[in-house]
Structure formats: structure tokens, C-alpha cells
Amino acid sequence: MAEAGIIPEDFESVMASMIGFRDLLIHDYASINLELVYEFLQTKISDFEIFSRYIAKWLEGLSRH
Predict the structure, then answer these.
(1) Contact in structure between 32 and 24 (CB atoms under 8 Å)
(2) 3-state SS, residue 65
(3) Which end of the chain has fewer CB within 10 Å, C or N?
(4) Is the pTM of this model over 0.70?
(5) What confidence tens digit (pLDDT) does each residue in 5-34 have?
């Protein structure tokens, strides 16, 4: 997404963390530690908000073309 100009390159590592979290939830859901899920959501929820703003900005740019 950084290569396509959708997110800044420095946000790419944040995305990798979110993707890893998603993979854990999807593929290892039987052994999820709910305390870790809670902690992740408490400390990383702003990353999802930032990501959504980048996507919204990118989509706005598409609609102008």
C-alpha cells in the first residue's frame, strides 16, 4: 500500500502489526489470549482510525480523477 501511495512508508510497519493481529485472530482463534486482544485494542485502536483516514483520503483522490 505504501508503494501505491495509499499509506506513508513509515506507517507500513504499523500495518504489518495489524495484519499479524488479524492473522492471529483468524488462524489461531482457538488459543487466543483475551487479555492480549484487549490490550492490543486498547493501545492500537488509534492505528485503525489513522488507517481509515489514509484510505478515505486515497478514495477522495480517486473520485477527483
Answers:
(1) yes
(2) coil
(3) C
(4) yes
(5) 999 999 999 999 999 888 988 898 788 889
Give the chain's length. Answer: 65
DSSP for residue 1: -
CA 58 to CA 5: how far, in whole Å?
Answer: 8
The helix (H) or strand (E) run that includes residue 20 is helix 12-27
DSSP per residue, 32-57: --HHHHHHHHHHHHHHHHHHHHHHHH
User: Cα separation of 28 and 4, whole Å?
Assistant: 30
pLDDT in tens, 37-61: 899 889 999 999 999 999 999 999 9
CB 44, CB 24: distance < 8 Å:
no
